[in-house]
Amino acid sequence: MRGYVGWGRVSRRWVVRALGVLGVAAVVGCSAPAPASAPGRTAAPSTAAPAPPAAVPPQPAGAVAPPTPVGPYRFVFPGINFAALPFHVAETQGFYRDQGVEVEMLPMPSTTGVAALLAGDVHGLGSVGTAVKAAVAGSPIKVVFATAHTQLFDLVSRPDIQSGEQLRGKIVSSADAGGAQDLATLAALAHLGLTERDVTLLRSRAENQVRMEQLRLGQIDATAVIPPLNLQARREGMNILVSTRDIYPLPLQGLAVRVGSLEVPAERDVHLRFLKATYRAMEWIRANRSEAAVLMTDWLQYDRGLAEETYDASLPGLSPDGMASEAAMRNAILAALDGDTSRTVSIAEVADWALGQQAVREVRAGQ
Predict the structure, then answer these.
(1) Domains of the chain in sequence order
(2) Rounded to 10 degrees, what is the CA torsion of 235, 236, 239, 243?
């Protein structure tokens, strides 16, 4: 198993090819990038598919053969946090190995990950929201599984701001428009009886840790963050004005694949193995709080106490059955439509849970 590859160590070839699909000029010496898409259109997928797995020697007669090893299965995900913990657990606990899958995990910006998936450079994409957006735009991508079936953002404010009315006219920091954090921020404002016109909404690509420091310094007045930052904020005396998990469900991470790969039995089988190992990891996380916290202290660089608090705060976001709720998926679709009321997009157009549900059934049956 190849396991996790840090963003700074991702192969230059994968990054350049992904950027090429986006029409971005690469600055490292590799093959020429693909031409950019016309404005407003989704880049057409390449007909190339990831290389087939190498053949392995047959098992001795009478032996109980383990799953035939395949790989590498290249999987891209947007960031290292609790929502991605099942993939890390499946690697470190040997669940991918048990399924005969050699997994190469590549943290990569979501938009670049979509491009890599469409180009056939990777097998799976972890960002569910981005995959829905791409599918709504016409890309042949479908979500087949959800590890984190809802977002966990809390709108956190400085100690002197304790209500929506006190937030009126103040500076609220958010990420790019249309992303999960931005959508959660708008939902929180609406819950407080405010709109983005009632505050100064400062959108940027700053890291959440940077936003928290700006909050401490008084440069902003509120921002939406997920565990453990919301927990740290509470420790420091800041206020949690709104927890958006229940008022605005939104799927975060899971697995999205090219539609064509679901129609090829060999590729579908590898997706199934990946999902069975991932769901087994999700069940392991639910059943092993202490062990999961130990893994989090190492992988996420939390102290033990914060790891346990993050576990408790984040566990409700872990999907119980590998699916996201209908409400969460409809919110993702509406966000992708971005106010376009002339179109109606069904969940079936962006998601197909059949493969994921097969994986869940087989794991629960001990297969």
Answers:
(1) 69-150+251-364 (3.40.190.10), 154-243 (3.40.190.10)
(2) -40
